[in-house]
Amino acid sequence: PFQAAADAGCAAAMCGYNLVNGKYACDNEDILVRDLKQSMGFDGWVMSDWWATKEFAADEGLDQEMPGNTMPFDPAKFTDDNLDTLSDEKIDAMVTPMLTKMLQYGLFDNPVCEPPNCKDIETKTNATNAEHQALARELATQSVLLLKNE
Which of 8, 27, 63, 114 lies 20 to 30 A from 102 at CA? Predict the structure, then answer.
């Protein structure tokens, strides 16, 4: 599924909380750089799941820390001080995929909302339609496997 997403031009990938080969996914250069960006040719950006970063992992392939704020139990890793350690070329390499995909998909031409008026957009947006619902039903039906105890 990851190769198909990269081939389809997926804009962003999200790394999670899990360990992969002994390293947290969002801090794992092997899966983010070697596998996703190099081997699969993924040209989008990688963002963390909310508070999934365990360390400042820009050099390991993480482009964006989500949600971007500090919690008492988990301080932000992409701080000004940490970002200041990166070269301009590295910063450009991190933000270029974001801006490229946003331009490609028209997000600047047709913005969904204008800050600060974006607070409730995710709860008021209908992101489905009858075609999506029919496809979801068909996929669920095709994926059901009946097991029988003997």
Answer: 27
Whether 49 is a known active-site residue: answer yes
Catalytic residue among 49, 74, 88, 109: 49
Place of tokens 């008026």: 117
Torsion sign over Cα 64, 118, 50, 140: negative
Mean pLDDT by 10 residues, the chain (150 residues): 90 94 95 96 95 92 87 81 94 95 87 74 75 88 72
CA angle 99, 103, 106 (to 5 degrees): 140
C-alpha to C-alpha distances, 79 to 4, 19, 70, 71, 144, nearest whole angstrom: 33, 24, 9, 13, 46
Q: What distance in Å separates the CA atoms of residue 81 and residue 132, rounded to the nearest whole number?
A: 44
- The whole-model pTM stands at 0.75
